[in-house]
Model the fold of this input.
Amino acid sequence: MTDLSDLPPLWSVPRFLALRPAVPLVTALALWLYAVRHTDVSHLDDYGLVTALHPSFWAGLAVLTAGFWFTVRDRRRPGGWSAAYVLGLLVMERATQAVLYPTPLYAWAWKHDGVVDHLLTAGGLQNADRIGDMAVYDQWPGFFAAQAALVRLLGVDSAAMYMAWWPLASSLLLLLPLLLIYRTFTEDRRLIWTAVWLFYVANWVGQDYFSPQSVAFALHLGVLAVVLRRYGRSGEGGGRRGQAVWTALVTLLVTAIVISHQLTPGMLVVSLLALWLLRRHRDWVPVVTTVVIFLAWCLTAALPFLSAALPDMIRAVGDVGGNVETGYGTTPTGTGAVATSWAARLLSGSVLLLTVVGAWRQPVLRYRATPLLVITAAPLPMFVASSYGSEMIFRVLMFMLPGVAFFGAAALLPKVRTLAATEAAAEAAAEAAAGARRQGEARARHGFGFRTGFGLRVWGPLPVLLAGTLAFVPSYSGKDRISYFPPQEVALVRQLFDEAPEGSLVVAANRNYPLAYASYGSVDHYWFLEDDRRHVDEIVRDPARTLATDMAGVERPARAYFLFTRGQSADSEMNGQLTGAQLDRVRESVAASPRFRLVAETGAGVVYELRQGEDEGAEDDGAEGAGR
Done:
């Protein structure tokens, strides 16, 4: 029989110290849980989720950031704690919206859900004669075909059942290739995990939603990770057989990218060409493989779209000013929209500044990670090539972010350990000696050990990291008034498309509403705010008459509908299209006109139908005058 006195104690000081990093992490997640249970998103203002969040959310994010910083700085802590903090960051950043909102965010995510649904309904790809401009998705079907298969596999009604969680899932997809890329240039886990943290904090652009770009970007990083680790001068491919395996993997990843997204293959080609110019990356296989697959797809499946778009693409080459300007209808308007826009700009500007500082302060790292600097700068020439729907500036920033985060993290750390064995040994010896001195000085100072220099090195970067982490929230969620569609709005639009006969026309101010592309194979759309500005002004002056004229070409049994929702109003107001008063005038004019009849109405929107064959012109002057 064992004597109980021989058993080790259940609790001891060393065991407590080993678990000490769990305290801030658990505290932060507890504060987050409390926040999401006490946050009301039913009435969002122009600051989106920023002002709606319970204060405990901000406290939790601050605790999480501080806990991460002191954990990652401590070499004695296992790397698993840093990973746990990063996962906690992703939960707080990317899962909050999925928990708070009862419906998926963002009109473009709903659009992609419509594409998946059409693919399932039609049973295959279709050309422009059948589905018009939407045929572009059939020419890059990789993502949508995979999602259609996933919907069938899960047995759900549509991708809308899970796409609210896609930002979290797509962010997790980036973690492995990021770690592989960073470990190519350093074994210092402080730098690796701080770079990962900065990457997720600075990635506010929002391309993690349910979209081909979210997956293509992860595959893009996967290709770069393989090339940097296995095709560099120091790469160990395991001989010809090993290189054949890596070439097959690169081919598979590149093919998935090329058939899924238009822009990402171009970014990948530019990055691989830049790497090929380096002495350490002279292997031609990855770049030639990518170029051949890319050209083969462009000259076959994607040729119809590219042939039609080629004149505009040629005109855009060299027009840097035009490629970076936002244009009419996308200028932030109002205090909230302007403030959140500036928060995003300052966040990106600060991280870019940290990148410059990190590259300047770490000459050894700058040399060792030259390939990462090269692929960071590689996307910049894309400004000359295209505007990409006025989004090129955001996409370039996103593709630069892996390298930007790496050198930005280097700016926050005093010393970085590279892969060079001699440098690592010298650093270890120097740190051991310094640690012994600090330990002796700590005892002399009653265990606190806070010399001025040491305190600045530890505490100085924390406010910078904390400010960036907190700034992510307004940058990422500051326009949720535009992106969120309440259940009443979803139900209203779903009712419209369920009842609309084939060949019908739906007219709306803009495309910012859920299910905007539902039944796009059988229902046409017209968003009048995307029309010529003179025609928009004409609609504002005489709404019902002008809209009725625009909608008059629809013949029975098809119908013409006017849809006005809360999401359209929010997008128009916050992006400088029409004011709320102007939109109310349009709605009231349609409501008062005998040309239209009310079909459905909820607290989030209204649907009117254009009367057909019922004396459309009678009494419209007096009624519309009353509406105005």
